[in-house]
């Protein structure tokens, strides 16, 4: 079991480009969470998804950000028209049930986005 | 709005010492509290999870306590080792059906050999 796989580990984009971050949950996990860690800040919840459903997107910026978790394939966090303030580490976590604390989440190693 | 504060922000101690990391949260209506470890370039590792009805949890040299009414938790590390060097994060899960964890900024711990 390879754990939660995130790719790319490092991504560099110029302002205005698009960034796509992928997360493959642990085998058997059907719940995915995305968190963002800005420099010198704590991790901030962004979105919680189950297969083909967005359950809670209360932490997602209103514009330019979207997330999906299709029936087949990894979960994708998409950032359109990136700006320098999007530079951060984006972490994905997966679990097998709802209420992220009821079961211990497994976190990926993160994808570090740098916007030039 | 839930806010989680961790003190100190950084700590450096000699190997072998016992130490305490502190976490406080503003809204006591939590579902549970977790302590994580974050190593540079790696993901988070869950260390201990305390349900809101519990007072403490222990795992090896680690002991975490929870005082929900006062909004405080402590992580006690006994007989510290250089391998304990990492950033320790405290996170709470809000009650009321919320799904996202609220994290503190962490305590950066260095254990000197």
Question: Could you please describe the fold and organization of this structure?
Answer:
The complex is a heterodimer of chains A (116) and B (113). Chain A is mainly beta. In chain A, 0% of the residues lie in helices and 48% in strands. In chain A, the strands form two sheets. In chain A, strands 2, 4, 5, 6, 9, 10 and 11 form a seven-stranded mixed β-sheet that branches. Chain A has a four-stranded antiparallel β-sheet with strand order 1-3-8-7, with no helix packed on it. In chain A, a hairpin with a 6-residue loop joins strand 7 and strand 8. The mean pLDDT of chain A is 91. With 113 residues, chain B is mostly beta strands. Helix content of chain B is 0%, strand content 59%. The model of chain B has no long low-confidence stretch (mean pLDDT 92). The interface between A and B is medium-sized, with 29 and 25 residues.
Order of helices and strands of chain B: EEEEEEEEEEE
Return the average pLDDT of chain B rounded to an integer.
Answer: 92
How many helix segments of chain B?
0
* Helical coverage of chain B, percent range: under 10%
Secondary structure elements and pairings:
The complex is a heterodimer of chains A (116) and B (113).
Chain A: E1 5-7, E2 10-13, E3 19-24, E4 31-37, E5 43-50, E6 53-56, E7 65-68, E8 75-79, E9 88-95, E10 106-107, E11 111-115
Parallel strand pairs in A: 2-11
Antiparallel strand pairs in A: 1-3, 3-8, 4-5, 4-9, 5-6, 7-8, 9-10, 9-11
Chain B: E1 4-7, E2 10-14, E3 19-25, E4 30-38, E5 44-51, E6 56-59, E7 62-67, E8 72-77, E9 86-94, E10 101-103, E11 107-112
Parallel strand pairs in B: 2-11
Antiparallel strand pairs in B: 1-3, 3-8, 4-5, 4-9, 6-7, 7-8, 9-10, 9-11
């Amino acid at each position: 079991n390879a754990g939660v796989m995130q790719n790319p580990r490092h991504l560099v984009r110029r302002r205005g480009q698009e960034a796509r971050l992928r997360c493959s949950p642990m085998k058997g996990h059907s719940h995915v969470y995305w968190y963002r860690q800005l420099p010198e800040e704590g991790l901030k919840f962004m979105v919680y998804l189950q297969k083909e459903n967005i359950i809670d997107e209360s932490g997602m910026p209103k514009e330019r950000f979207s997330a999906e978790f299709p029936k087949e394939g990894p979960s994708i966090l998409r950032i359109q028209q990136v700006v320098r303030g999007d530079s951060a580490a984006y972490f994905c976590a997966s679990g097998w049930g709802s209420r992220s604390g009821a079961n211990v989440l497994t976190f990926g190693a993160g994808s570090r986005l740098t916007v030039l | 709005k839930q806010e989680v504060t961790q003190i100190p922000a950084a700590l450096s101690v000699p190997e072998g010492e016992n130490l305490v990391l502190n976490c406080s949260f503003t809204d006591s209506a939590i579902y549970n509290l977790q302590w994580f470890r974050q190593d540079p370039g790696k993901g988070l590792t869950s260390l201990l999870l305390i349900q809101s009805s519990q007072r403490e949890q222990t795992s090896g040299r680690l002991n975490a306590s929870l005082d929900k009414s006062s909004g405080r938790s402590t992580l006690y590390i006994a007989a510290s080792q250089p391998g304990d060097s990492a950033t320790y994060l405290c996170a709470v899960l809000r009650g009321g059906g919320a799904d996202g964890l609220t994290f503190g900024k962490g305590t950066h711990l260095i254990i000197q050999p």
